């Protein structure tokens, strides 16, 4: 069966790998002209995440490319340290640069998948026997299934579920390449800044940020999340941030690889695969969604004082504080038997 995956970030290549191992023929279309490099560190935490990496055969490679976690140091505008968030609470079990992870998963899946860069889906027609797809540049093609793995601003979601948009969480952030320690943070009410990134509080969500206001090499977005009653329609479904995303703080990278493993396994089992996928992944994914804005950049001086006090207590109450780890492990992974 031919499966089209939109998006070559993390979820897309991970899904392509598993689909190929189950005997499917995956095609991955990516709007960017090549793999996106750079980006900040992402992490995996808990046995659910690590188990999938182990089954993929990439855990050793991820460990070899791991970064060195560091405390996040919060400073006032006068430069004096106010508090720090220990690395043990921010980096999970293994931390890796997003660009390195994307390249690793691409190299894992590329021998068994077709990759098309510099193109994107413009229309979908599902006639219950297959999906006719039109592209911005390539010729129209027909696929058995289409999977949206194209992130929070998913084009597949806009085409199939046009009424569902990301829910604004009250904050914006920007990321860019810069010299300096990106864990050395300057804070004031509603603002958190470091070399290479900025987070700030805003009460109003603009519908669109004109590209002319964003410099080349700068990633800018709102902190939002996706909440939908269902992420599947006919022969189309969404995976990772496209269906269950949180812009920051939602353990999206671990969710992406776990969801890819489950979706491919259920598709291989046949029948009502998308419904089983949603039943298993949906509650897990919603439990992982978070908004770090009020936690990291509270909008008042009183909120900043409470944040600093809480950070000082974290090392003393590790089991209580690690709600992220409990959420990351709150899924029992089925055992699927790939054909190879």
Q: What spatial order of strands do you see in the largest sheet?
A: 5-4-13-14-15-12-16
Shape: globular
As a whole number of angstroms, the C-alpha radius of gyration is 20 Å
Largest sheet: 7 strands, mixed
Query: How much helix, percentage-wise, in residues?
Result: 25-40%
H-E string = EHEEHHEEEHEEEEEHEEEEEEEHHHHHHH
Number of strands: 18
Structure, described:
The protein is an alpha/beta fold and 340 residues long. It has helices spanning 11-21, 47-56, 59-64, 98-109, 155-160, 241-244, 252-269, 273-288, 293-296, 301-313, 318-321, 323-328; strands at residues 2-6, 25-30, 41-44, 72-75, 81-85, 94-97, 114-117, 121-126, 131-135, 141-143, 145-148, 167-175, 184-188, 191-194, 197-201, 219-225, 232-233, 236-238. Strands 5-4-13-14-15-12-16 form a 7-stranded mixed beta sheet. Strands 7-2-1-11-18-17 form a 6-stranded mixed beta sheet. A 3-stranded antiparallel beta sheet has the order 8-9-10. Helix 1 (11-21) packs parallel to helix 7 (252-269), helix 2 (47-56) packs across helix 7 and helix 7 (252-269) packs antiparallel against helix 8 (273-288).
